[in-house]
What does this fold into?
Amino acid sequence: MAEAEPDTDALLDRAAAGDGEARNRLLARHRRRLRRLIAVRLDRRLAARVDPSDVVQESLAEADRRLDAYLAERPVPFYPWLRRLVLERLIDLHRRHIRSQKRSVRREAALDVPLSDESLRDLAEHLLDTGSSPSAGLQRDEERARLADLLGRLPDGDRELLVMRHLEHLSVRDIAAVLGISEGAVKVRQVRALARLRGLLGPLNEESPP
It folds into this structure.
C-alpha cells in the first residue's frame, strides 16, 4: 500500500526543519492549480507571447528564494502565498506587453489581474452547471451569454470572489486569507454576490420580449 502524501502543513514543518525533499515537494505539488490560475487570468493578447509553464516555473523559482522568510512567519496559508507570487508575475507581464491597456498600476494591484472575456464565459458556464444560476427558463446559450455580461457588471469584489470560488476552486479558508476577512464573511459575500446577479437579471428579464 502506497504511503499517503503528507499534507501541506506537515511539509511546511519538515521544510522549516531543513528537509530538502519536503521543500521540493511543497514547490511542486501545486503546479496544476497554478496553471489553472494562469488560464483564468491570462489575457488572450498575451497568450501568443507567454508560455504558462514558464510563468509557473519562474514563480516557483521566486517562491524558492522567498520560502525561508515565509516559513519563519507563515503570514497566510501556503497556496494563497504562492498564488500571490504568480499574480505578481502576471501583473508584470501585463505592464510590459499590453501597452494599450488603460489601467493604472494601482488599479491593477487592487484587482490582481484583469479577467478575460473567456473567463467570464467560463464562470457563467460553471454557475449553470452547478445549479448556481440566478435564473431559470432561459435557453442555455442565451443564459450563458447573459450571465457573462452580468458578471462583467458586478462590483469588482463580488466578481473576484466568485472567480476565486468557482474557477480557481479556492477553499473558503484560502479566500479569507487572500481577502483578509473571516471565513464567515466570505460566505456572506458569496451569497450577496449571487443575490446581486439575480437583481441585475430581473430588470433584463422584464425588458426582454415575450
Notes: Residues 100-111, 204-210 have pLDDT under 50 and may be disordered. Residues 16 and 71 are 6 Å apart (CA to CA). DSSP finds twelve helices and no strands in the chain. The first helix runs from residue 8 to 16.
